[in-house]
Every structure is written in structure tokens, then in C-alpha cells.
Amino acid sequence: MTKTIRLTMAQALTRFLSRQMTAIDGTTVPIFGGVWAIFGHGNVAGLGEALYGERETLPTFRAHNEQAMAHAAIAYAKANFRRRFMAATSSIGPGALNMVTAAAVAHVNRLPVLLLPGDVFANRIPDPVLQQAEDFSDGTVTVNDCFKPVSRYFDRITRPEQIVPALNRAMQVLTDPADCGPVTLALCQDVQAEAYDYPESFFDERLWAPRRVRPDRDELAAAVAALKTARKPLIVAGGGVLYSGACAALAGFVEATGIPICETQGGKSSLPDDHRLNMAAIGVTGTSAANRLAEEADVVLAVGTRLQDFTTGSWALFKGEGKTLIGLNVQPFDAGKHQALPLVADAKEGLMELTDALQGWAASAAWTDGAVRGKAEWQAEAGKATAPANAALPSDAQVIGAVQRAMGFDVIALHAAGGLPGEMHKLWQAGTPGSYHAEYGFSTMGYEIAGALGAKMARPDKEVVVMIGDGSYLMLNSEIATSVMLGLKLTVVLLDNRGFGCINRLQMATGGANFNNLLKDARHETLPDIDFAAHAASLGAIAQKVSSISELETALAAAKANERTTVIVIDTDPLISTEAGGHWWDVAVPEVSSRPQVVAARKEYEEKRKAQHVGD
């Protein structure tokens, strides 16, 4: 006879989560690092009580904003290379909807997070309850249906026993390297409190190990044949290299074959920046060294990347005649993009098998040596961009240079939106895997501080440096207070260019008038004069404003010794970006305009589009 234990649905959920394990470097640890929670009437009585009962084995963390706490959970998973992750719970209504943006972040970036929004009563007797949005034509719809398009798996728990198959399916998705992404379990608030006799075996400890798919023999043979004919081969390393733990395998493959590599935003830090064959960033935000090779390459091995438009220069970057694309990816959807030869496999396994199959073959010395010379030329250009200068307002690049000099190469440098991703991708020199943390799949303003908090929870031994603009800071800064409360020190460098400088530059580049991006160009009666240092200090941070690059370096050196989160503010020039490197990006310009600048921009746009090639 099956032994059972009577628990509420919420108690069963939290007990199950606390029993899921993984192994990191031979040590068994809980796969859930904890649960972020902001309680409301939709989850405080049911799930809140259950979390209290498991608080020693499944820690609960309180945040100040639901979107931010989910960002922290997502960053925790990213910093753990998807080996560990977290859950986040909110009440119904606005609390739940605040997490939808974060769900999209996880969905786009293929990162695991378990979202547990409260939901309406399954029995519908009290309807409409506080914060319930009624659909006049469908009684089953709630605001949580908004999670469906941005969840890898969605379920609504309307009976207590449904949590058993739902949690098993959730774990399969959260740990699957191909289908990994956000799982949403909408928890009807009455059902959270309802009891059921659950099988005791449901709560047995379970160890989850990453699945490593090996290549199909025919696909491997086709990829090897293509590489052996290559005169100008190139590797594009994406985030899948890091998630697979394939950095050493990648290094071995590069050194055995002499093929130069370049890195996407997600793949940056796959190899150290100082590796002789690492050309660093590729694409719209790429280095001249990487993009020159990409334009000439006849065989491109794309490893663990979804090949988004910033990587491919809106599919105008790869210009090599008769070029062949090989998609080494655990997800078939990505492996076959743009008529690529698919090589569906775990990145580590795939690279190791390619290395074995290509023994004795190497790229031509002329191609490799040319890549090395191109890298040296790029490094000289990058050094000029990041060097300190005496300008009244420094550029983003000069601030990046100061942070790099002061903080070194082994810190975790984190950013997400605005002009910084472009400059950081090209100019930041990553030293170790995971030392570069970019949310540039969804590029979410407001991810930065909350994401840094999650990264620090995952890697408490590392200094975490946040690079953020004033626009992102104003959107979401509340987790500075959470970092202070939890004793998790961050260093935040706030670049104040008084508006949305990146989009203002894009507006100008596409012929537009300066309008509604910089504060001075937006409708106003009085220009804001925001004291960011005072604001950060009010949240509990150590804060100061500096007036020069030299002062910034001094403040960063002092911040290393600080015991709590430090925010350093510096004014920057909104109009300057690094001219070296980069590539065209497809941003549609109006066909018709009364402004000659737009007409000229459209003509240039049509000319650039001729380099694009159509693919799947």
C-alpha cells in the first residue's frame, strides 16, 4: 500500500522544491537556491505559510518589486550556468503582471526560473476578488494567461493533486538543456490551502544532472567535411558554451585547429580576452578584428548561439562567397537557422568530437596569422577609446576603461540596456568564464541592479560591478535596499547622460530630430536635476558623485574595501560612442518624410539592405 502524507497543495510544493538536488564539482547541493517572495492576499496564507515551514531548507528572500525579484532569480541561474536556479512568487493581479517582463527575459535568454503567481479562486464563489481582471467572454481567463507566450511550460493548478504532474513537468523543463526556460505555475489561492494525501515518494530526494546529447554520426561527418574544405574558418561562441561548461573544450578545439573565434554577448568570456585567437565581440557591437574575419569567412561554426540580429549584423555580416554555416546547438530550432548544417549536440560533447575527428587538420597559417595581426590592431584602437582624457564629460568607453583598470579582469561585470552593451561588448576584457554578465537577449532596462543581486547570491566570492545608465536606474533601483538588507555588497557605477543617450544617437543616425530622448529634448517646464548619490544613500548604499575619470578610479579602489553596496555617479557625454569596430544594424527608416535628413538616411538604408541575405 502506498504511504501518503496529508499536506496542503502549497506545503507539498515547497517540500518538493526543497528535495530537488544537483551536483556541483562533486558536491550535492539543493538545485533551488531559494524563493523570492512578495506576499499579498493571493499567496500569503497558502504559500506564505508553506514557505515558513520550509524556511531552513528552502530560504525565502523578500524584495521590493516583483519584476526585480524575478530578475534576481534569473541572474542567479545565469551566474550558475543554469545548474542552479530560484523560484519567485507574487500575489494575483499587478504583482503577477509585474513578473511577466522577467518571464520574457528568461524565455529569450533560455534561462530557468520557476514563477509562482497567485491566481483567482478555483471555485469562483467570491468572484470577482480584489485585483481580478474579468474577461467578459471567457470565465477561465485571468491575468496569468499573459505568462503563456513567455513561458516554456504553463499550468494553472485548480485541484491540489494537479501539483504532482505539474512539478514533475516543471523540473524536466527547468533542467532540459534544449527546452530550458521559465516555468509558470499559476496557483489558485483557495487550492493553495486545500489538503490532499500525497504519496511520500513524491518527496524523495532527487538528483538532477545535465543531459549531454552527443552528435548524430551523419551530422558530425557533414560538419567535419565542411571544416576540412575551409580556407577561412571562424567560430562564433554563444552562451551555450558557458552553460555546457565547454570553455576548456573550446580552448582545446581552437588550439588544435588554429581557428579564430569571436563571441556573442551571451558567449563573451568563453575564452579569456587575452587568448591570441579570441577576436572578442562580433556583429553590430563587434570588434574590427572579429567583423573583418566574419565578412571573409567561408565556413562559420556557430556554437551555442541563437544567432540574433546583433550577432549577424542583421544577416548582412557574413559575406563570404559560398559560405557554409554549421549550427552546433543542443536546440534543433537554433541549429538549423539560415540553412545551416545542423549539428545537434551538447556544446562540450560536440566540440570534443569535432576535435577528435579533425586531428591533423588546421586552418592555414596565413588565415590564423592575419587574425592575430587584426587583433593587435583592434587592441590599439580599443586602448585609445578607453584611455583617460581631459574632456569635460567623459565617454562611456573612458568610464569602462577606468572600471577595468581599478577592478581588474576577474570581477563579474554586469549590464543590460542602453549604450553600455555596445561599448562593453567591444571594450571590456573578460578574464574568466562568467566574468561578463550581459542581459542582451531582451535588453531589459532595470535588470541591472536586481540582476547583480542575483549574480552576487550565486557567486558571493566575486566582486560584482554594475554598469548602468541614469535611464535604467530610474526605472528600477529598489533592490539596492535589498542588497543592503541581505548584506550582499555590489559596486554600482551610474553613468548619467541625462536621458536615453543611446536611443538619441540612433534617432540621429536614422535622420530623426532630437526628440523625447534626452531630457532637454523632451517636453518640460523645468529640467530635472536628480541627485542620484543622495537617492542611493537613502536606500542604504555608500554613495558619492565624482567629477573625473581619475576621481572615479580612486572611488572604485575605495569601494573594494567597503562592506556594503556602493554607488558611484559620474556625468558622461550622451553623444559619444566608440567609432572603431561595429557593424550596420537594420533599423527601418521611413520611406516618406518631409525632412531631408530622413530622406538621405532612407537612401543609405536601402543601400545597406542589399548586403542582407534571406534565410529561414
Automatic annotation (TrEMBL):
SUPFAM superfamilies: DHS-like NAD/FAD-binding domain (SSF52467), Thiamin diphosphate-binding fold (THDP-binding) (SSF52518)
Record-linked PROSITE patterns: TPP_ENZYMES
GO CC terms in record: acetolactate synthase complex
Key word rRNA processing present: no
Domain of life according to the entry: Bacteria
Keywords: Hydrolase, Thiamine pyrophosphate
Residue span, Thiamine pyrophosphate enzyme central domain: 220-354
GO molecular function, one term: flavin adenine dinucleotide binding
One Pfam family recorded for the sequence: TPP_enzyme_N
Every Thiamine pyrophosphate enzyme TPP-binding domain range: 418-570
Residue stretches making up the Thiamine pyrophosphate enzyme N-terminal TPP-binding domain: 47-131
Biological processes per GO annotation: inositol catabolic process; isoleucine biosynthetic process; L-valine biosynthetic process
NCBIfam families: myo_inos_iolD
Family: Belongs to the TPP enzyme family.
Protein name per its UniProtKB record: 3D-(3,5/4)-trihydroxycyclohexane-1,2-dione acylhydrolase (Decyclizing)
Lineage of producing organism: Bacteria, Pseudomonadati, Pseudomonadota, Alphaproteobacteria, Hyphomicrobiales
